[in-house]
Write a structure and sequence with these properties.
By secondary structure, the protein is an alpha/beta fold. It has two domains: 185 residues, Rossmann fold; 127 residues, Rossmann fold (3-Layer(aba) Sandwich), CATH 3.40.50. Helices cover 34% and strands 16% of the residues. It contains eleven helices and twelve strands. The strands form two sheets. It has a seven-stranded parallel β-sheet, with helices on both faces. A five-stranded parallel β-sheet has the order 9-8-10-11-12, sandwiched between helices. Helix 1 packs across helix 11 and helix 3 packs parallel to helix 4. The two termini are 19 Å apart.
Length: 340
């Protein structure tokens, strides 16, 4: 059995865990504070206490870790719950997406760990620690896009699997097939595609003023309706406006739609790093701040001039299966060593 720790911020970590776990042949137990909707591929879900209530004391443990607040009931209960589960179920290996502290705890308890790498500037001591102690590292982007300096020392234990999308393998709909009933005489359709972890800027009034010939729809974020299955809307869009989170980028790549990406401020410049990869490959247009009205026509024109077929370079097809194979390899290899 394999454990899979899923960070509770946003939706991307959960979507990635579900995609990968569907392709792992042995039982997978989810470890998370999130509510996981049915159906899901997990053999069991261990619900962990939240550890982010204020106030906190010395959360970085003098700079050695990222989040280990002193005398924090939620954090302490969370770690005790993880340790109790390890003692009871004795997993062969655990995937951690993402937490330095959970990785350290599990490895100290003797469990092999697979760490999900995240783009950005991961040169700080906690990230150096977690990448050194990992039995394997999975990077959810193509190797040819970037090999960050902080990962070069770990080349022999890193799998660059490509972008992991929940829609991998799903047939793409034609633009016309995915369109809802027309709501006006618009020549093209833009989709503002937000995640669950934050909002994109702007408003519909601004969008309509800047591009009056476009129908603007929103999904996710603070301004749009949440959809469990946004695939038809993604496929129907003539251009997608989104942030540069790994999950949203992979979903856009799976649908092969032109995209304007607004890199959101995240720790360690995560989204800026992802956006830079995409620009280098010529896959999307990317900016750092929400454009003003005058910029939109040019940005959308640039995005629509890019051949959507170029999204094949993000290597979404088979990415989740490649990640699953890497995880299973760690579990099998370490189990064989134990049997000797």
């Amino acid at each position: 059995m394999i454990g899979y720790y899923i960070h509770h911020h946003g939706f991307g970590h959960l979507a990635r865990a579900i995609s990968i776990s569907r392709r792992i042949r042995q039982p997978v137990v989810a470890l998370t504070s999130l509510q996981i909707p049915e159906p899901h591929p997990f053999a069991a879900v261990i619900t962990l206490p939240r550890d982010d209530a204020e106030p906190v004391q010395d959360p970085t443990a003098h700079g050695v870790l990222h989040w280990a607040p002193r005398h924090h009931p939620g954090y302490s209960d969370r770690m005790h719950r993880l340790a109790a589960w390890v003692a009871q179920d004795r997993p062969q290996a655990c995937v951690v997406d993402v937490s330095v502290e959970v990785s350290v705890l599990l490895r100290v308890l003797g469990i092999p760990i697979v760490v999900m790498a995240v783009p950005g500037d991961r040169y700080d001591p906690p990230h150096e620690l977690v990448h050194r102690l990992a039995d394997h590292i999975v990077a959810a982007w193509p190797r040819k896009c970037a090999t960050p300096a902080w990962l070069r020392a770990h080349e022999q234990k890193t799998s660059y699997v490509g972008g992991i999308s929940r829609f991998d393998g799903r047939p793409r709909l034609s633009t016309e097939a995915g369109r809802p009933e027309a709501t006006g005489s618009f020549r093209s359709r833009a989709l503002v595609f937000g995640g669950a972890g934050g909002a994109l800027g702007g408003d519909k009034a601004q969008w309509r003023t800047s591009c009056p010939d476009m129908q603007w729809d929103t999904i996710g974020g603070m301004s749009g309706s949440w959809r469990e299955d946004p695939w038809p809307q993604l496929c129907a869009a003539d251009v997608v406006i989104s942030h540069a989170g790994q999950g949203c980028v992979a979903d856009i790549a799976a649908a092969r739609r032109p995209a304007v990406l607004i890199a959101q401020p995240r720790p360690y410049r995560e989204q800026e790093a992802t956006a830079a990869m995409l620009v280098r490959l010529g896959l999307a247009v990317a900016v750092r701040t929400w454009p003003d009205e005058q910029q939109w026509p040019d940005l959308i024109g640039q995005a629509r001039a890019i051949d959507p077929a170029r999204w094949v370079h993000w290597q979404v097809a088979g990415a989740a299966a490649r990640a699953a194979a890497a995880i299973e390899s760690v579990a099998e290899r370490t189990s064989r060593r134990m049997a000797r």
